[in-house]
Specification:
The chain is of the alpha+beta class. It has a single domain (about 5-130), classed as Aspartate Aminotransferase, domain 1. It contains three helices and five strands; from the N terminus they run ααβββββα. A five-stranded antiparallel beta sheet has the order 1-2-3-4-5. β1 and β2 form a beta hairpin. α2 (about 20-35) packs across α3 (about 105-125). The protein is globular. The termini are far apart.
Length: about 130
């Protein structure tokens, strides 16, 4: 069985157009923002980036590359990167279209905020050890 990273590499290569290049770019930015990011392959073909929980998925469609943030509805987004799935109670997404520029600093800030949110949740749900009681 191929690793998730190898499957994502293959997806990028198979796209062979602007979508593959954009997916490769956001993937690199995810790793720059948080070197602890883990790559996964879920739901029969969706790239997923996690750190103590899902950060975002990377879906590719004919017209967009969609990054869906698992807990995007509770993330602050002062730069208004979220432009899709805005009505949901949990998720938010960023749809990138051909020719869109990515503000790397703003994007990485959003990634770091998503990681911090997962870490905060993990910290709150961590069971108390006997010595902590």
């Amino acid at each position: 069985m191929e690793s998730a990273s190898a499957l994502i590499d293959k997806r990028i290569k198979d796209l062979a157009d602007w979508r593959g290049a954009l997916l490769a770019r956001v993937r690199a930015l995810l790793h720059e923002a948080d070197p602890g990011i883990v790559e996964e392959w879920k739901w029969r073909g969706t790239p997923v980036w996690s750190h103590e929980g899902i950060i975002c998925t990377g879906e590719t469609y004919k017209e967009v590359v969609k990054l869906t943030f698992a807990r995007g509805a509770v993330l602050e987004d002062p730069s208004n990167l979220f432009n899709s799935s805005l009505d949901g109670n949990v998720r938010r997404a960023v749809d990138f279209r051909e020719g869109d520029e990515i503000d790397a600093a703003v994007f990485k800030e959003l990634i770091r905020a998503a990681v911090a949110l997962n870490l905060e949740r993990k910290k709150k749900t961590k069971p108390a050890k006997a010595r902590d009681l």
